[in-house]
Every structure is written in structure tokens, then in C-alpha cells.
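Appendix B: complex inputs.
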Amino acid sequence: MASKALVAASTKPLVLAILRNGESYGYEIIQSVRRLSGGRLDWSEPMLYPLLKRMERDGLLASRWRMTESNRFRRYFRLTEKGLREQEHETAEWSMVSDILAKVIEGTLAPAS
Amino acid sequence: MTDPFDLEREIARWSRSLRRQPGIEDGDAADLEGYLRDKIEDLAGQGLGPKEAFERAAREFTASDALGEDYDRSRAAARLGGRLPGRPPGFLPALVWNYAKIALRKLRRQKIYSFINIAGLAVGLAACLLILLWVKDELSYDAYHEKADRIYRVALSGVREGASEGLALAPFASAPAFAAEIPEIETFARLLYADPLAVVEGRKIDLADIYFTDPGFFSIFTHRFLAGGPSTALSLPGSLVLTEETARTLFGRTDVLGRTVNFDNEYDLKVTAVIQDVPGNSHFRFKGLASLATIATRPEIRPYVEDWLRLGGWVYLLLRDGAARGAVEAKMAAVTLERAGDEFSRPGGVGNFRLQPLASIHLRSHLEAEIEPNGDIRYVYAFSLIAAFILVLACVNFMNLSTARSAGRGREVGLRKVMGARRGNLIIQFLGESVLLTAAAAVFAVLLVVLALPAFNRLAGKGIGPSSLLSGGTPLLLAGLILLTGVLGGCYPALFMSAFRPAAVLKGMLGRGLKRGSFRSVLVVFQFTVSIVLMAGTWIILAQTRYMKTRELGFDKDKVLVVQVRDEAARRGAAALASDLKASPNVRDTSLTAGVPGHIMTVIYINQEGRPERDTFPAQHIWSDYDFVRTYGITIVRGRDFSRSMASDAAGVYLINETAARRMGWGDDAVGRKIGNNLNSLREIVGIMKDFHTESLKDPIAPLVVRLATPEELMPRAEFLSLKLRGGDIPATIALVKSKWAERSERGFEFFFADQTFDALYRSEERFGRIIAAFSAMAIFVACLGLFGLASYAAEQRTKEIGIRKVLGASETGLIVHLSKDFLRWVLLANVIALPAAYLITTRLWLVKFATRSTPGLPVFAAVAGLSLLVALLTVSGQTVRAALANPADSVRYE
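Resulting structure:
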């Protein structure tokens, strides 16, 4: 399991990244994360739902109701222009951290020169 | 038999329970229900039955506790910082808007009580604020000097026998000696007072409050320079530093660097710096500074600079960081012994040097010859105490009225309790209400203060601006005051009302104690006690001041016009003027002297014939011509007055007062004995004058010797020409004297009447009395407001009783008496407590500092008691009369 702090920090970029591939809904997003992380990230609905609402209010996401196969309404989310930019920005930041982390670890493992 | 599992019913139930959670709205629930269904569908797809799928999905939902909180937070950014709409911030109680609504509703409904509450609090707070501003100003004296904690004034202790604590002056010769030999002393500044005639571009302007001083002055004291700088301002002889105001007086502008000013037609000074005017909270406010080196070598000044036994003026020292005052004082004693022998330290000697911290001078130094009149720390304490009392009075009003009105709120309290309010909630509600009310009152109070400041400044002789309400922690203080007053005034009603038992109050049964209000009577008694103490105190203080001003001084101070004679030319003019005026029918006598009652600057050490040289005592000394005793109407009890017909007088003889005669140990036999200021120049005593006051009546009469001076002795020393007028048209006489003066002297015509001098001596007491009077008026106003409120409440409560009494035949007068009786009883009780207290406080703490005092007698206390009863009666009578005159048909109609 990932640490609480990491979960908190990574939820938003992950949601943005997943929605970059197209429209999706809450439960599907949870399933995607679980699948992609091999079960190491296990989001709960009560955690995700407020986040989606907040992101929608912040203008990163837009939502609409769509009828499901079982004739039920389900809310689908997609990225807005702003969300797209935010996603690129977030990804860049995460890659940067990841790069630095990699370099640091390389550095400490390499013999001192 | 088991119920078949109905998925839809279970989901509906789940959804209902979700909606009950705080923070979940309908839209959220619909969304979440969608999630649940997605999950159930998924699980069903994995082969689980509907029941298992539902249970597992629901479990995972509820596993996350604090569901609601998450929703709360999800709205955070857009709304009220993490709160639901309508819900107050976390530090406030949940029902705060409701509390506010109720409080405002009460304010609107009960206009009279709200007015009394707010007006009482506002006046109380305003009085408190005014006093605090005054206290703050008093405490801020001299604190603006950057090195204030290292600055000391050199004083001499034990200079004069009797009441005096010491002398604020020091010999100028001591300062350089101390600085040279005591390493802890960084630098020094000596101040020599001058009131020169300035000549600028041919114009002549009389200046005052100019000091000649050392270059170290600006290393010690902090002043802001508009032109020039601290290091160069006084470094050369002939330097002159002007304040902005003086520069304007002399030149009409402030860019006057390098300009020349002539003093007394004798020497030129060059303006080397212009500084900002000295702040009002400074224990001496000079108008200009000149370098002492300019005049130090002049023959009349030189002895003051070089001689250890002459007191030139005030001496200030700057000590180095960390220097101990006691150690420096010890070293000063050693240096003094080495340089001046034991003249200072021996018994009966000049006295010992001690250091006064700068910060303590204004409020705690009451020496002889203070550079300017100081304040008094006791006044600071007294006023602070009064401020506290007035505030408590205002709080008491609030407590009284709220508990009196509490009957009306019993139902509210009961209802709130039934709805689940705990006592703590109610206490917070009521305290909040009182703090809110206090805050509203504070707004009015600030307004009142701004309006009253000019009048208060005149009364207190201050220059406090409205801006000081905003500076230096005053707003913080005000906030603290509001909180304190709100909590103090609100705590009793809060505790009292929150204790109501809902069952009892909702049934309409209120505790009997509530209506009887014995606690309220105690509070009223307390209020009036404080007010009466203040009233009696004011009376006694003003009576003492009046007593001092009107008391016989032992000489005839009426119609004595005193012209100030400041320099050589003026003295010659004055002598000529005196002989001119002798012919005038309006002038009875004239006398040219050095020193007049109220203005005796010289103290000499008296040697007596037949006593060793060292055996001296200090006495006030006046150089005089033949006519001093006649001009001032002084009585000779033994011997005779100076006489032109006695040839032996011409060489110089003495008149002494009775106190001096006693001090010499000769009593009535003093006439014919010889005294002097050293054993080589003893002169005969020709007469003993009846004791008369030459100083404030605060001080006991001191030994005084009047020396008949030869013209040669008098000429360089004379300071005053006293003219005893015959009455008639005094303004015309003044005009005559003035026109003659103009012919004789180029100095301005400065004069005063002898009685004014004495009035001025009591200015600080008079001021104290007037300020106290103003504040006791406020206290009484606040107390009366409270009484008024209670009276109208009582009248209202007793409407039916009054109606029935009237129906049964009570007369209106009888009813008024009946209704007023209670209140008057309280006020009477307050008198019984307050008057002895006032007597003790004023006689023990205040009157003791006066050598001559009036003892407050029974009439004073009777008057105060009568006045307080009258005020109380007037306050309640409006209400009682209205109640008594009401038509009983209206009040008993419904029963």
C-alpha cells in the first residue's frame, strides 16, 4: 500500500492522466487505478467522489449524465482545456521529481569520485 | 421463513441513511448511489449474488468513516473556508447567528434598557479611555530618548531642612570633575537657564526657556534635526540651536542655519542647528540651546562654573552600558571629598550627590528647583483607580439591568434547554451578548473621547491628539477593555440565567429571589458608594485648593503689582521708575528687591554670632531696599522696620521671620544680635517679622532673612519692582506704569500680581481637583443611569400593586414616597459606607502632603449626602411619579 501522503498527493494527477485517455466515470477510474497499480493503489469511492467534485468546481473537469446499458444515469467526467493544461503541468512536475529521485539514488549508489 | 432480498429496497434504505449524514446533500447522495450501483453491478458480474454484492459494496462505502467530513471539505475552497453555508466558523458556537438575532431583537424591543446599557457603558468606557490616554502620556515622559535608560540627573539630597527631599540642582564644577575621574560616565550636560533679550535684524524679542549647555547634550538626549547635526551643533562657543518654533519667532522661517542672533545686546550667537520642537512628554521643554562655553568665562557666570559651592543649574550624565548607579554615586562621593573637601558630606553640609534615572524624573521627583513642574505618580495611581471604578460602575449597570430583565428571558432559556442547550452554551450566548453590547458601546465611547479630547486637554494641560487612540497599543488596550467589560458585566447574568430550571421557568414559576433583587440592591449600594466617595473626594480637594488660595498668607497680597526686572539696564530703569511713580496718586509704595514672596530664588547659609563657623543653617534670602515691609504689609512683631532715619541701617542690617528667630535659638531676643553668610560680615538683626508664607501652603514656612542692601549691593541683584497700588482704576495704573517702563527699558514689560503668583502654586492641585470632578460627574451619571433603569423596571413590575393601592385609597404623594423609599434607603446606606471612607482616603492619603490644610468638616459631608440623595431622588422620581399618577383602571383592568 502506498503511504497516505503519497495517495493524497498523487490522486489528482492520476485522475487527470486517466481522463486524458477519454471520458470516464468514478467507479471506472477506481478500477483503472487498481488495475494499473496492480492493486497497490486502492481508492475508495468516498475519497474519489469529493475530489472529482472539487476538480469539477475548479474547472479542471466537466461532467455530464449519460444513460447506462442498464437504463440508469451515471455521471461521466472529462478534461476541460484547463484540465488538459493542468495535466501536462502535473506530469512534467512528477517526471522532474522522478528524474531527480533517480539521479540522487544513482549518485548515492555510485562510488564517490 | 426469510424475506426475499429486495435489492432496490436495500439501496433506497442505504441512500436514506446516507442523506441523514451531516454534510451530504441530495445531489451527492444521487451520485454516490450511482457509485454503489456501479460496484454492485461489477460484483454481480463477478458472480456474486445480489445480497452479497450489496453487502460488500455497502461495507466498503461505510468502511471509510468521516464520509460527511470529506464532503464538507470538498466544498472548502469555494465557500466559507471549509464550512457549510450557514454554519459559523469553528471558533464560534454553532448557533451564533441565532444568538445575534435574539440579541438584536432584544435591543430593538427594549429601547430604554438598551439605551441605559449602551450609554452607561459608553460613558464608562470613554472615561476609562480618557484616563488611560492621560496615564499613557504621563508614563511616556522622556521615553523617546534613545539612551533613556542610561541618562541620569545629578541631584543633591538633604540640602534643606524640613519637608524638602533634596535639590534638583548641582554645582556645575562637579560635572567635569566626575566625568574626568569616573570611567562609567560617558559624557555630561549642564543646563543654565536663560531668558535673554534676543536681537535679530534690529528687532528685539524676549525669549524664555533657553539653556546654555555643553557639547555633550546631543550625545545624551535624542532630538530630531531639521538642519545641522548633533555632533557639530554645540561644539564651538557662540553656537545656538533653535527649535522650529523659536526659529519662526525670531526669523519667521526655519532655514536659518548660519544666521546671527544677539543676546542681551552683549554677544552674538550663530545658529548651528534647527531641531524639531521638544515633545510635550518631556520633563523640560526648552526653546533653544546655546553653548555654555560662550558665557562660561564672563565674570558673573564664571563663579557658577568653577565654584563647587555654587549651584549653576541642572546636570545630566550619560552612563556607559552596564554601569551601576550605586557604584557611580559612591565614586561621586569620593571625588567630591577629594575636590571640595567635606563641605558636602559633613552633617549640615550641602548634601550628597545622587543620581535620578531620567525615566523617574517626571513622575517621581519632587525636589526643590525642579527644572519644570513635574507630574505625580500618585495622580497616575489615583486616576487609574478611578478609571477602574468607573468601568466597574458601568459593568454593574449592565449586570443589574440584565438580571432585572432576566424574568423576560426565562422562557427563552427554558426553551433552549429543552432543545438541548447545555449550560455552557447559554453562558457563551449571554457572555457573547454582553461583549457585543460592550463593543457597540465602545464605538460610541471612542466617538465621545474624540469629542471630549480638546476639553480634556485644556482641563489636564495636555496635548493629546485623537491619533493617540490608534497608536502604541491603544487599540489592543481597547479590545482588551471591551472583552474585560463584556465578560465582567456579563458573567453574573450569564451564570444566573443559565441556571434556570427549564421545567420551572416554562411553567412560569420564577425564583422569588429574582424579583426581590437583593443582589441588585447590593450593586446599587456599591455604585453609589463609589460615586459618593468620588464626590466627597472632589469636594475636599477643591475645598483645600480654595482654602490655600484664600487663606491669609501673613502679608497683604492684594493690589501688589510686580514688574520683572531682568537686566542691568532694566534695573537702572526700575530704580528711576520707582521714584517717578512715588509721585503718582495711584501708587502707595514701591520696593525694589531680589526675591518676592512666591519667587525667592536665593538660599544662604546663616552664620550666627557666638557660634562656630561650621554651625550654619539654610534660610531664604531677599535683598531689599527700605520699603519691602511697607509694600507687602508685613507685620513687625519685635524690633522695627528698616529705616532711612537710622544711619546705622545704611551699612546693611537684617529683618528675620519668626521661624528664623526660633531656628537661631534666640527667639524674641534675636533683635540686636548679629548674623551673616560668613562670620566676617555679621550684621545686626533690627526686627522680627510675623511669619508669612513665601511658598506654597503645601510647604511649612521656612526661615527667611531680608537684608537691607546698599544701592551698590542691590543694583546687580534686583529682580522685581513691587508696586502697592491704591485701588481706583487699576488698568489705567498698569497702562501708566507700562508707558513709563517703555521710556526706561527696552525689555518687554512683564508683570504679575502677587496674588496670581500664589494661585499658580496650586495649579497642579486645582487641575487634579477639576479632573477628579469631571470623572466623578461621569461616575455619578453612570450610577444614576443604573438607578433610573432599576426604578423604571420596579415601577413597571409594580404597576398592578400601585393600581390596587390606588383603588384602595392610597394618595399619589403617599405612593411616590412609597416607591422612592427603597431607592433612597440604598443611597442612604451607600452614604453611611462612603463618607467615612472618603474622609479616611482624603485625609490620610492626600491632605497629609499639605503643611497647612483645611479639615473637612461635617457640613461638607452633610452636603455630599444631601446632594447624593437629591440626585437619586430626581433620578427615580420621573418613574415613580409616572407610576403613581397612572390610572388604576388601566393597570388592573385585566384581573
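The two ends of chain A are 37 Å apart (CA to CA).
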